[in-house]
Write a structure and sequence with these properties.
Number of strands: 17
Radius of gyration: 20 Å
Order of helices and strands: EEEHEEEEEEHHEHEHEHEHEHEHEHE
Mean pLDDT: 97
Number of domains: 2
Helix content: 25-40%
Number of helices: 10
CATH architecture of the largest domain: Alpha-Beta Complex
Low-confidence stretches: none
Amino acid sequence: MHAVQLAAVNELTIASVPDPQAVSGEVVVRLRAAALNHRDVWIKLGQYAGLKFPCIPGSDGAGIVESVGAGVDSTWLGREVIINPSLDWGGRESAQSEGFSILGLPREGTLAEKIAVPAANLAPKPAHLTWEEAAALPLAGLTSHRLLFARARLRPDDRVLITGIGGGVALFALQLIVAQGAEAFVTSSSAEKISRAVALGAAGGADYKEAGWATTLAKAHGPFDVIVDSAGGEGFNDLIDLTAPGGRIVLFGATRGNPSGVALRKIFWRQLSLLGSTMGSPCDFAGMLEFVSRHRLKPVVSEVFPLARAAEAFALMERGGQFGKIVVTP
């Protein structure tokens, strides 16, 4: 079969590799579509823990079950499925186990024509989604659903700020918030992305590169009960100032690194909660799929590339040009 293969840091090729085989408890899925995440870019750039080369990246995928291994119910054969990329979460809902990993490293990922995965990580493809939309759902849907519902305990009367709108998790978080009936605001350095977020249901937004943006936003729309952030960095204290007393800041990344100083007095005096969130449990995945099907939500697909043009898909994500998920089809 053909697959995207990273032979070394920044060495991406389309390689011919052996077809995967389903061992006991596994299935082989012929993929109809896959999707990129920032994780794949960081692996390509050599900026991710546990690197190994060569590897096939990709955590998101949807397709048709082609074969099953020993001990797997044969009724999976021929079924349309999406894949839960969260592997070996463990027995606690509160946090993942030491054995937890994400599909696409160290296990071979979805940027290929076929993949072998545990049968326990399959779910029926939501019928209202196209293949491209289904492939765009798993990681972003799981991550955003857990951070909003399991961690932030989102309520319909909450006012929520999402920083850096445009990526898959942030955009799907916006869709979940709107569907829940809460009020959402966004930040971006792109007026176009803010405008497109408003078209999806955001109540407003702010350009975080403008001087005094946080003060202006607070006066016009704040404070916020929940803030969703994946950047961290030197602007983190602005988020503390924007959080309402008793509010929650949920972090699912730190693309700008650690802030040099955090206003701890404001955190304890105003009863704020700082919450970390990573991926999610099988229970979170099931809850996400139920919510998506009930509200008939569709992930935003930014652009679709054939597998042979995967390097262009990676380049688009590296320059931050996407609005939604970047999908790759075999």
